Amino acid sequence: MNYLFLVRRPHPWRRQLSFKGRRLTVGQFLGRMRTERWSPQKAAAEFELPVEAAFEAISYGERFRTLIAAEDAEDARAAKGLMHAAAAR
How many angstroms separate the CA atoms of 66 and 72, rounded? Predict the structure, then answer.
């Protein structure tokens, strides 16, 4: 599927798409949107994106929910490992 606002970024293991011209993944966008309880319009405004980009991300997020959840879990594991390593110093 072709997206207008989303692209694949080179990464060793991440497969979810990011916003063009940004270091912002769909999962990060949707997570913030959910946490803040923002509407798509509000989220687009907060991230200075076209509202169409927010709706494209929502659609992508619904389609690839499992992938995004798996990558979020991997990010959490990596962050936990970094915290343990820093505490051990």
Answer: 10
